[in-house]
Design a protein that fits this description.
- It contains nine helices and 14 strands.
- It is an alpha+beta fold and 311 residues long.
- The protein has two domains: 93 residues, Phosphorylase Kinase, domain 1 (2-Layer Sandwich), CATH 3.30.200; 192 residues, Aminoglycoside phosphotransferase (APH), C-terminal lobe (Aminoglycoside 3'-phosphotransferase, Chain: A, domain 2, Alpha-Beta Complex), CATH 3.90.1200.
- The strands form five sheets. The protein has a five-stranded antiparallel β-sheet with strand order 1-2-3-6-5, sandwiched between helices. A three-stranded mixed β-sheet has the order 4-13-12, with helices on one face.
Length: 311
């Protein structure tokens, strides 16, 4: 008879960490994984995610993304450091330090924390600029955006990468769901032209930077987590930071005060956020499909956003 999930996890933690688990308490906030507060006999506390065994590649990709971010994070920006990961019986498990997080979204009253986080993100982007192991835009392997596959590889052209590795797979997925987007082919053909005049240096981007994947600590540090990393245009992180509740204005002030954005960033933001709208449409349906379609119509009606002179 197979061990119960709690027994498997207890035994696995003992083997991995040499520590005896005495309590695990479910924590809210996880929509993909189950989230736990782990308490040990030695008085220590850790954070854990668990999922079905088949989800282990998602957790491994998260570990790789966190390691990349940590390599470029400035002082003051905390990147959770994975403690252990693997299979505990029929569960995929990722264990990290327990952090007492404070929300930093648009409803947060701590404008100073948001300002500092924006500055830390700019510093991370700047520090990573020019650091890609392979010249160009991309990531060494496929990873995940939420629970969905995120296709990567490398391209020498940012516009080509964004069209072929971000928008095209999502648009193809929508078509397979019998929900094709009108204007999809025209959009994909135009994206490389739209972005040809935008000279962006590849930087390490978080890739999934909505307000639910960032926080602050009481000591003033910022925290980012749950990445979907790749080397791309830094503006993708700033664009997504305006979606799904968004960050407060002080976050953007902190970023641009440290590293101003190029002209045309506001026009490019709609294009970059189309990727996330499509992903949500494919995962959840509902109103996201209509939002993605409206975004495509708007982009096609504009002409060339953020290209050419960048105006």
């Amino acid at each position: 008879m197979a061990a119960a999930p709690a027994e498997s996890l207890t035994a696995w933690l003992q083997g991995q960490l040499g520590r005896r688990l005495v309590a695990r308490t479910p924590v809210g906030g996880g929509c993909i994984n189950r989230i736990w507060r782990l308490e040990f006999a030695d008085g220590g506390v850790l954070f854990a995610k668990t999922n079905r065994a088949a989800a282990l590649p998602q957790l491994v990709a998260e570990v790789e993304g966190l390691a990349a971010l940590a390599a470029h994070a400035p002082a003051g920006l905390v990147i959770p450091e994975p403690v252990a990961w693997g299979l505990a019986g029929d569960q995929a498990v990722l264990v990290m330090p327990w952090l007492d997080l404070e929300g930093i979204g648009a409803a947060s009253v701590d404008t100073g924390a948001a300002f500092r986080l924006g500055k830390y993100l700019a510093d991370l982007h700047r520090h990573s600029a020019g650091g890609s192991a392979v010249a160009g835009y991309g990531w060494p392997a496929a990873n995940f955006i939420g629970s969905a596959p995120q296709f990567n590889g490398w391209r020498s052209s940012w516009g080509q990468f964004f069209a072929e590795c971000r928008l095209a797979p999502q648009l193809a997925w929508a078509a397979r769901r019998s929900e094709p987007l009108q204007g999809a082919g025209a959009l994909l053909a135009l994206v490389p032209q739209w972005l040809a005049g935008h000279a962006c240096e590849p930087v390490l981007v978080h890739g999934d930077l909505w307000c639910g994947n960032a926080a602050s600590l009481r000591n003033g540090s910022g925290v980012i987590f749950d990445p979907a990393c790749y080397w791309g245009d830094r503006e993708v992180d700033l664009a997504m930071a305006r979606l799904f509740g968004g960050f407060p204005p002080s976050f953007f002030a902190g970023y641009t005060g440290s590293w101003p954005l190029s002209a045309g960033a506001s026009e490019r933001a709609a294009l970059y956020n189309l990727y996330h709208l499509l992903n949500h449409a494919n995962l959840f349906g509902g109103g996201y499909q209509q939002r993605a379609q409206a975004c495509i119509h708007e982009l096609l009606s504009r002409g060339i956003p953020g290209g050419g002179s960048g105006a």
